[in-house]
Amino acid sequence: MTLSTDGLTGRFIVLEGGEGAGKTSLIAALEAALAADGRMVRRTREPGGSPSAEKIRAIVVSGSIDSLDAVTETLLFTAARRQHLRETVLPALKRGEIVLCDRYLGSTLAYQGLRGVSEEDILDLHRRFCGGLRPHLTLLLDIPPEIGLARSGRRLVADGSGEDRFEQMDLDAHRRIRAAYLADAARDPGSYVVLDATKTPEQLFAEALVALKARL
Question: In this structure, what DSSP letter does residue 62 have?
Fold first, then answer.
């Protein structure tokens, strides 16, 4: 049974990018700026973003990279996304809110695609079980993986979360993930804005806010 995406009056904005790109900090800053303008904003993340989806998150982001095979991993991400959409995203969009989401379908295409799951299969699951919902805008934070992984490593030490399953992949894998993101953005320039995530947080925020307000 697919999800109904009828009657959505809000705007769905997604931030994508590799490890350590700065999505979490940027999305918090964008939420604050939009709320200060009087907008109704909902900030969320994937995997997770709702009580049941957060339980699935605990499975897919921890442990060794080989603890799940690629198909199982993709099915779990799709299950988490369906719950996230049902419980958080779709209700907010029906209320006319702006939803800012840290990762979405683009991450599945990049990461699980790298592990050998075809784009056709990923998109088929998304259409059948997640209503085929796509963002109004995707902000892609592009960063060389050498820089991003160093940032991410410092964060993992600081927060002690143990959510390092995908950081365990080798550097070449992260380079291929970056290439997959950029290729996806090149195929759909009307829906993507690519931002240089090596810039200062202040510069990145300013550019992202301009791009976001242009779509609102």
Answer: S
